[in-house]
Amino acid sequence: MVRPLKKIKKNIRLHSEGTTTLILFGICAALFCLLFGYVFSFQSPLFWMAVAILGAVYLVVINFFRCPIRIYEGETEDMVLAPADGKVVVVEEVEENEYFHDRRLMVSIFMSLFNVHANWIPIDGTIKMVRHHNGRFSAAWLPKASLDNERSTIVIETEDGTEVLVRQVAGAMARRIVTYPAEGEACFIDEHLGFIKFGSRVDVYLPLTAKPLVGEGQRTTGNQTVIATLK
User: Distance (Å, rounded) from C-alpha 148 to C-alpha 126?
Assistant: First the structure.
């Protein structure tokens, strides 16, 4: 499978998933400040305190919707890249009962509110399955979140027939999971897998023969950190 040639870019943009949120939040914040100033006076310290607080919150929301353009420049064959920015919270053998129905090596990455929440394709291959599940919105770092929370499951088959499962899991604040690829499509490292709004995790299930290259507590950079090799 030949990866498409891409021009390397270093700039950072805002993700399209945040356009509506940022516009609505900005309008509501502006109206609130105008009303606050009208009631308490635009010269009041309370007015400027409200402006400062809402401005700080708006900057946090903008930071959340950052969308770095990243190109992985290393060898990609048999390499599994981190699908998200965040912290590794699980590296262990588990029973995967939705698709494989056997034991797999699970690497789980938790994304805090301050991480980039765009998700990347972790390995070159073909999308074999995409399935969305409704569920709860418990804290994303809890082990049961992978089974109980709202989630999307994506299975990628490599050129040699190895299957890797990626699961996007919603967190306590997340209310929308977006998954871009469709079944049957070719997918490549450097491409976006999807987006999860406001706190979440991404789990990757690998064959037991895979060699993990990260440990619990380690920070990852989406589409840059190699989390495992398949052979």
Answer: 27
